[in-house]
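Hello again,

I reread your note about wanting to compare the complex against the isolated chains. To keep things tidy I'm splitting this into two emails, and this first one only covers the full assembly. Below are the input lines as submitted, including protein chains and any nucleic acid or small-molecule components. They are followed by the predicted structure of everything together. The single-chain runs will come separately.
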Amino acid sequence: MVQLEVFLQTLVSGLLLGGLYALIGLGMTLIMGVMKIINLAHGELMMVAMYIAFWLFHLLGMDPYVTLLVTVPALFVLGVFIQKTLISPVLKVDSILPENQVILTVGIGMVLQNLATLFFTSDYRSTPVDYASDAWYLSDWWRSSPIELSFSVPWVVSFGFAVAITAALWWFLQRTDAGKAIRATAQDKDAAILMGVNVERMTVVTFGLGAALVGAAGSLFIPMYYLYPALGGRFTLIAFVITILGGLGSTQGAIIGGLILGVFESMTATYVGMGWAPVGRFLVFVACLIFLPGGVAGLMRRR
Amino acid sequence: MASAAQTLGRYRTAAAVVVGLAVIPLVPGLNSSYVLHMLILMLMWSVIGMAWNLLGGYCGQVSFGHAAFFGLGAYTGGILYYHLGWSAWWGLPVGMVVVALGALGVGYICLRLRGPYFALGTLAMGEVLRVTAENLEWLTEGTRGIMLETRTWVAKEPFYYVILAIAVASFVVLEVMVRSKWGYYFVAIREDQDAAESLGIDTTLYKNIALVVSAVLTGVAGAFYTCYMGYIDPEIVFALHDVSIVAIMVVMVGGVATRWGPLVGAVIMILLSEVVRTLPYIGRAHQTLFGILLIVIIIFLPNGVVGDFRKMMRFFLGRSKPAGAGGV
Amino acid sequence: MALLELEGVTKQFGGLTAVSNVSFAVAEGQIVGLIGPNGAGKTTLFNMINGFLKPTAGQIRFRGERIDGLKPHKVCRMGLARTFQVVKPLQRMTVLDNVLASSFLRFPARADAERNAWEVLEFTGLTPVANTVSKGLPLGLRKRLEIARALATRPALILLDEACAGLNPTELDESIRIIRKIRETGTTVLIIEHHMKVIMSISDHIVVLNYGEKIAEGSPEEVARNPAVIQAYLGGEAAHA
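Full-complex prediction:
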């Protein structure tokens, strides 16, 4: 029974983590789908959002969840700025290696991380919200439950926000004209141009949107995670593992990929050891490359 | 077609560079331990750059994970020393075998991927090895790292000549490869993999060849690093930014798919990082400056200092001359 | 024995059948035309013959040996070369280097490979642009470079995928002359072409595909009179002729 309890508790933590991972993966997937470039500054963008949330909490006493109102638009603007001033020009440069764009985003990531170190030092910072260690328990609802599970309040709330934001994104992509134009651009750029879609503007919006999504993830992570400049690199890796796992450019795939990765990491941490969680992450990645080249999306299509 | 005169000219330049480098330790004023340290680092990075250039520049397979091979080479020497009591220099020959096997494994997983996905696959490989080295404490001592009790030589000169020999050997090997049929095959794969395949080129085989050779040279540089610096840990030798990305930067700055690009790039990068490090306020911002440099190079000099030399001269001198066509 | 034989070749992508049960043979020394409206499955068929795609069913034999499912470089090594409809020059290489890269297959020694490359350039009339970087060539010459590269592998059979599309009348005449010359030197030709005048004048034998199925086969005259062919071209999409 204890073993089952540990297993279920691990599963719950994994799913909660996975929901937030999905949000990170969604932003990257969206950018990859529309622009066909891999944004290796993705985690660094989240790190920027986390610093914004951190300072709003410490200077203005703003609740981390309220900071969403600032981080999301701020990251959207940052994303638009990066796309317009840096990525757009490179897409027009002729060079031997088309991977230039990827390398460019690495450069952007380096600058962001280093600037954060310069301004805020490389200290670990925490955001001590009152409810940080609050939790709901399964026995609160079900008195005679044979096993006990805890649901950390900040994790559950963050997860809820992540689900809501994901739903909003889905609605935006499916129902609004701008969303449809973005999907059309992702499917076939030339056809989209012929249909009168302003592809240039859509790529700018997409990069902004991708940055805004990962910005939201930053606000949602800040109650639980220590913040330091190098955190970004870690999340960039996580984001692309999710993207590969989910099937490149597929939004549903990214959600499922995020959940799988969250659960898998949580399982590795429980059953193999904390330090090995990153290895588990990459094992998933490698296994996916070998056995499931199309990712989860490829699997769904085959059915 | 290379005429005899061109061939002679090519090797005259190379010979002059080698002789010039070989006499530096004999020149008073230049033979300070500081200057030699800089030169050793430049040569080491030019080896890594040449190696990366073969796979990335010529064969078009952009690797974000050369730290994997550098680290494998470095740790082979370190582990032989720490566990078996062998000289760390055994890391050079043994490391070549270990790294070649490692590269075949990486190739099996990553070479089925194309373009940016290959890049990400190799990046993951580098990270997997770093985290593995951090956690496999019985073998690698984890994050404590491995320290050599004594280094082979106190003076820098012997190290300098060793890395110079490695650099010259690498240059010759790559030059021979690139000028041969293989070089044409590599570039054909870079330019259009489907076309290359349908023209009778076994693209899987040749990509693996490029990867293994590139990895082995990088591993040799890694094994040398262990002997020279006397201390390694996973954060240093498997570093994403400080090894894998710097390897890319060396080649991008110097010039992708050019003969002298890696050396020029290594010189620029080492000088730059040294200058930046010694400046009082800017020192901590060296990553920012590197990042900005990378961005500027990608946007304005996509073929690097060597590849875009004419363009650069035109910019500085205000002259306009038609740029020559860059071939193989 | 025919040089190339297709027997019941079928390719399905998911639920879609792109090529369905196609059989025909290419005799040595012929020029065989493969025609059909857009989307008839012609390029898919080429991709199966050349090894980019594995047929879902059926056999492809070259000189009596099965080649379906072999990798493209092996197929090429056996003496079957192809060109691409959307030209794929090795962009940053010169015309000579492009041809040289494929000459090494039969001539491992560099001097021999170079001699072969120059011969092929002369044959295809590309000698004047030998040292031009191929990216800068006009379309007509890029199309011809495709042919030159394939010829440099000294094939017994060459597959030409729309080698004449988009050419002006002068270039067209030159290409027709080259294709005839290829046959005269003993290389068999299988050609996809939309240009009816070209296909009717150079082919010894024509195979017609429509919606992935073979609907007719025969001499140019027979095919031109065939009601199913006329229907396919006039009934479906407007003819390209």
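For quick reference: Confidence is low (pLDDT under 50) at residues 319-328 of chain B.

B.
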